Amino acid sequence: MSGIRLAAAPLGRSSLPLIAVLFGLAAVGWVVTGERMAGMDAGPGTDPGALGFFLTTWVVMMGAMMFPSVAPMVIAYDRIRQRRRDLGKSASAGGTALFVGGYVASWAAFGLLGWTIFRASSEVAPNALAWDRGGRYLAGGVIVLAAIYELTPAKNACLRRCRTPFSFLFGGWRDGGFGAFRLGLEHGAWCVGCCWALMAALFALGVMSVAWMAFVAALIAAEKLLPWARKTSGGITLLLGVLGLCVALVPNRVPGLVLPDSAQAREARMTMTPIRMDGMRATPAAMSDRKRADRQRR
């Protein structure tokens, strides 16, 4: 119990290097993501590209978006690990890195699931996501669903585990490197359970948009880090509800939303080759725009 009390003590200077590493990795993630997404169609329904391209981009995105909000959990794990080592108990030397690796692996699995669903729906109903065939209502509905999920017991249960690091870690601590990875994997699963609807909303708003990435990352950080949990959740619910209705009914009035029929989206699609060097696929809309441009040049 004495080890637990010391581990739960306020953060000291020993945690500053780890905080710097997490925020530094997040900053690098934002820069790399911005470069990877430069010139892409940043609107709803954007083709996520080939599997390799999407997974690498997705993992970097998760580091950029999630590392600041997961920092308290990582720091708590590292302090407990160090305290156990000081007491002569089992503590993996690379346990903190393995814990973070397990967390990222959970989000990678979620990204793979999202990519698979998108690909399957595109194959079964290729026009279902078209903006002029109900796509905007589908996008708005996904965002409203994210708002509703904020009020569910499942959301509260997952968020509670994300907001109470020491309670989560003491209840399921595992020794060794594999134990550290598995614990990170479990925490990542709870985090996915907490934030999956917000990530679905990001797909609806434009998964290749850095601006919407920052918006969703800010919502996640707010509900995990701010002390007013219930008020923050209520505010996010209201914000997402209004945003979803606006996307469905008046999308041209939503700031920062790149409409698929806008000049910006058409220009981005026209610059895409059928298979880009980075693995990004051209959408049917992109091919149509390219053929139209070719006819005009002739």
Number of strands: 0
N-to-C CA distance: 80 Å
Main sheet: strands, sense, barrel: none
The secondary-structure element order is HHHHHHHHHHHH
CA gyration radius, whole angstroms: 21 Å
The computed structural class is mainly alpha
Structural overview:
With 298 residues, this protein is mainly alpha-helical. It has one domain. Helices cover 73% and strands 0% of the residues. It is built from 12 helices and no strands. Helix 4 runs parallel beside helix 8, helix 5 packs antiparallel against helix 10 (229-249) and helix 9 runs antiparallel to helix 10. The N and C termini lie far apart (80 Å).
From the structure above, extract its key features:
298 residues, mainly alpha, 73% helix
Annotate the secondary structure layout.
Elements: H1 2-7, H2 16-37, H3 51-86, H4 95-124, H5 135-149, H6 153-163, H7 165-172, H8 176-206, H9 210-225, H10 229-249, H11 263-270, H12 284-297
Helix pairs in contact: 2-3, 3-4, 3-9, 4-8, 5-8, 5-10, 6-8, 8-9, 9-10, 11-12
Give a short synopsis of this structure.
With 298 residues, this protein is an all-alpha fold.
